[in-house]
Write a structure and sequence with these properties.
2 copies of one chain form a homodimer. Chain A is α/β, with parallel strands linked by helices. The longest helix of chain A is centred in the C-terminal third of the chain and has 25 residues. The two termini of chain A are 47 Å apart. The mean pLDDT of chain A is 91. Chains A and B meet through α4 and α5 of A and α4 and α5 of B.
Chain lengths: 616, 616
């Protein structure tokens, strides 16, 4: 049961299920309503006027709204729940909210879950014997917080207050009073946003007062020593008695090293980092928390946890402020994780105001695929294998100095290489984006046919320029094509091309299953968004030529960068956006491919390359 | 602003402030309303019918109550808040609730905060990929729990479910899922109730399924090495850098020793104890939690915490189940602590259905005094000094073997002693109750006059039988009276009598201040309740004779035993009673004596003994 809600004065429309609060529906649309308590009904600031529709008066309403205003339709939007279609007027925000531009053109109003509240308390006397803690809680209640605290705060309390004339700064994470600091420390307020990738981990220290990124670094995941992909990591936990704790320690070590660099370069102390938002795939986050990932890896593929969780960072050995909190985002399924949810948040895929259909693909050893719009969304994961990462490719390598990352074949048969680190470098291998480019160009040049077969030398004589023909080789009985000069001798074999076909075919089949299920075609797509570093380096035209993405105009194929990391930052800077992210799974249907008979049929079809004549 | 609420069919009346839920008002009166979620609005079982009065329909009501029943006035009592006088019909309980008799004739319906829920989950498959945790939470939601859990549960989850065919027992403490145990372990469900006294610590293991006390033990508080009273303990924390952690460790050591004995005698494992309720005075509970007690001990006497708190027992080093919770009750002030609140709970002083006025006195180095009824209550603490504990008395001693605990003086002047351990023992000193008895009997026999002065030997000749006269001595120039035979030579000096007068005068003055403030006299008192071990041993007639308690009939003076410990048990066995206890401070006005000019005047008056002719 969904109801239509129309917001004034913006005149924006949305549909939300029975029971949704007006506050959440507005947040979902990116409309800012004043609030300090984050929708907990305690600050009284989120008043809206219900112009039409049912909105019974609630307890909290009576506390903050006069009888006359109640009669006029004013309600606390965080308590007002939809039971009918309605029209709601949102008052102009008091003051200018700070905002930051993040993600894929995403305008985020700063409203971090961490807030520092400076308190100037009255000192107790015989006529005012309120306890220290109650005194602090009372002051926080005036700021709209229904505070909870823990022994670490209690223990410090008596001395801290008395040594500082009862002036202190409360560090609130949501309603948790996690620390009291002497005097006024509001200026020092930071968070840690992390994209914990299987291969690469990106961390950023964010200024929670300004939204500024104070420092950002990436590191290879130190778990890599136990295998390149999630399956080998899970295997390690199954084979070795200490495997799980070993891998957990490696995650923490990676984050710790990142923090060492980030704090050194920014001069920010770990003690002033009060919250971390960490996204990653389900296996990475399970390992981070020391949770057995084995059932993720075998049918029926069940994570221990898909919901977003909050814990003390110290509980997993992550050294920030001793009471700092750590939050994750939800997973959609075993193989579409919180990193993708973060990407969906950063790209606004599920709540785009234009209502257009978008396809988001994150290409890796698993291709995560999300197809949808505000009207409905499907997601799935397709097992691509490691070809895009350069593994199982004869001269494949990671995207680092000396790797071929782009290729162009001229009409005259000249092969022009683009090499990471500069074209003056001697090429030493081929990166994923180079592989896609190479195969696409070879297909366009006729070196490879639509089925993926390398041309026979005898056929080449008639069909290819000499410059290309002389690059055809046979190595140990396997046909190959030399990409570099003979001295460097970087080649692509028939087997390499087959590996790429399997990888792209799997992703393309996943896309096709979702498009079939949604009953749409490439023509209905507004954009194809390529996420992740692979997505940033890949040539959109080549991706389209080999059929990795559906046939849309090249301008419609957009690299969105590290959308997972952007989503983590957004969730750190705005608890409303975080709440929206946490609700993303409600709006998405997860499609499990391994159970579906038609997947294999479609996969067989998508192994081939699409006809070249579509290019013109 | 208070409203009158009338409960049907019992026809009981109470007044409750605006904003109180009907559920809480009923609990407060001891009326049982069905509930498994404890008033969190999630189980839907606490339906009542509002016969008259205002009760707006709330979100949760719509979830659990049909339109027809809503129209008929049915509401969830935990969501229905008072905005007017009202009449409410409570339906008969489904099934027979278990109950236990605890405290001072207190009938407690078992509803512990700890609940074990046996779960038989369906196993996941490709069509049901719900995560392990969500699967558990969904099953708990069906039982009315909106469960929260923590990493310790998550880490165990995948292996535990798969090793036990997805059958497990959830251990809930409130809404916290603190543990999952393999298979069905509902039978093993225990709690730990503690009265953490300055001198004596009493602990009991309680069966939370049956309410039975499985084992009970008392131990001397191992902090005693650092002083007998709270002031010397606080001094130790101020003088020694490690004093606070030393005293905390001693509290834990005391509880640990108790647990060793309790688990040995009952055969119950610590791992099956899931919650502790610990009461004690503010200083004892601050020390237990490692919180600096110094500001409690100096004006204006401010505890760090007076509100009830909940923490992990492991956070203070108490070894029960690793995730067991520990709850305290609130303090009324620096010197009327959670032990007294527990005593008020156990004696029903603030919510007695008879509406009668009662006076509760806990005599120790501080005398805690509570005067009131359901119509209003005052509390205070009077500094009695250590006389009742046998300190600063020449032959004073603790109540142990060889101590004189009772005395009778016959008309012929014979002094009959009652000795702890048997009257055949040689008396070696005098306990607090013996001191009260001795002075009362000496006053009745004319050995001491109303001002507390020992009779002069020359006056005694005319007024006392020979047998008494020959017991009058002078020791180092100080008059004294020999209680024992000359061989044992246990004496009471003039100074001892003065010390007793100061102690009882202080308490009597505290009582007088409260009675004055409430504008009542001894005639208005229904009962005088004496709490604690001293209260159990003291002779009510003697207490009255020396003016320690107001002049009521001896039958009206009742020893209520360890009411603090009983209150802790009640709070452990019923979260509703615990909620009632947590609200007790709202109903009590704490009277600080140290700020009051009239206290000293009254104290001067109460030093003397009341006229003997009142006795007849």
């Amino acid at each position: 049961m969904k109801y239509e809600i129309r917001f004034l004065p913006s005149d924006l429309l949305t549909n939300a299920p029975e029971g949704t609060t007006i506050f959440n529906a507005a947040n979902w649309m990116g409309l800012a309503i004043d609030s300090t308590c984050g929708g907990r009904g305690t600050c009284g600031k989120c008043k809206v006027r219900v112009v039409s529709g049912v909105a019974p008066i609630r307890e909290a309403d009576r506390k903050f709204i006069s009888e006359a205003d109640l009669a006029d339709g004013w309600r606390l939007s965080c308590r007002a729940v939809l039971h009918s279609d309605c029209v709601v007027e949102i008052p102009r925000l008091m003051g200018n909210p700070k905002a930051a531009l993040l993600g894929y053109g995403h305008h985020v109003i700063l409203n971090p879950n961490v807030a520092k509240v400076y308190l100037e308390l009255t000192e107790p006397n015989l006529d005012d014997q309120v306890s220290d803690l109650q005194r602090v809680h009372n002051a926080l209640a005036q700021e709209g917080y229904d505070a909870h605290s823990n022994p670490s705060v209690w223990r410090a309390l008596p001395k801290l207050l008395r040594a500082n004339d009862f002036r202190a700064t409360a560090v609130m994470v949501g309603d948790e009073l996690i620390a009291l600091e002497p005097g006024n420390t509001r200026e020092k307020n930071y968070g840690f946003a992390v994209d914990l990738g299987t291969t690469t981990v990106v961390g950023a220290i964010i200024n929670l007062n300004s939204g500024a990124v104070e420092a950002v670094k990436s590191e290879l995941n130190r778990q890599a020593a136990f295998g390149a992909d999630v399956i080998s990591r899970v295997s390690h936990t199954m084979m070795e008695p200490d495997g799980l704790s070993e891998l957990q320690a490696r995650s923490i070590q990676t984050l710790d090293d990142l923090l060492d660099q980030l704090t050194a370069s920014s001069g920010i102390a770990r003690e002033n980092i009060y919250e971390a938002v960490i996204v990653g795939n389900a296996t990475m986050l399970h390992l981070l928390m020391g949770i057995d990932p084995e059932p993720i890896s075998v049918a029926p593929f069940i994570p221990a946890i898909t919901q977003p969780v909050t814990l003390r960072a110290a509980d997993i050995g992550l050294r920030l402020h001793p009471e700092a909190r750590l939050a994750t985002l939800p997973h959609l399924g075993a193989y579409v994780g919180a990193d993708i949810v973060a990407g969906i948040l950063a790209t606004d895929l599920t709540r785009n105001k234009d209502g257009q259909l978008r396809l988001l693909i994150d290409v890796g050893t698993n291709g995560e695929i999300v197809l949808g719009s505000v009207h409905g969304t499907l997601a799935t994961a397709a097992p691509a294998g490691p070809a895009f990462e350069g593994a199982q490719i004869k001269h494949g390598m990671r995207a680092s100095d000396g790797a071929i990352e782009g290729i162009q074949i001229t009409a005259e048969g000249q092969v022009i290489l683009q090499i990471i680190g500069g074209n003056h470098l001697k090429p030493i291998g081929i990166a994923g984006s180079g592989l896609v480019d190479a195969v696409a160009e070879m297909y366009r040049a006729g070196v490879v046919d639509a089925s993926g077969r390398l041309i026979q030398v005898e056929d080449a004589r008639a069909k290819l320029p000499d410059a290309l023909r002389e690059r055809l080789l046979t190595i140990d009985g396997v046909r190959a094509f030399r990409l570099s000069d003979p001295a460097s001798n970087i080649v692509l074999t028939q087997q390499d091309i087959r590996a790429l076909q399997f990888a792209k075919g799997s992703i393309a089949a996943g896309v096709a299953v979702l498009m079939q299920q949604m009953n749409v075609t490439a023509k209905d797509l507004h954009q194809v968004l390529l996420a992740g570093s692979f997505g940033s380096y890949i040539n959109p035209a080549s991706a389209r030529t080999i059929g990795l993405v559906p046939w849309v105009a090249v301008e419609q194929i957009v690299a969105v960068g590290n959308s997972a990391g952007e989503g983590a930052k957004i969730a750190l800077l705005s608890f409303r956006e975080r709440e929206a992210a946490n609700r993303i799974p409600e709006f998405i249907e997860y499609v499990e491919l391994s159970g579906r008979a038609e997947f294999n049929d479609i996969f067989m079809e998508t192994l081939a390359f699409p006809p070249l004549d579509a290019e013109s």
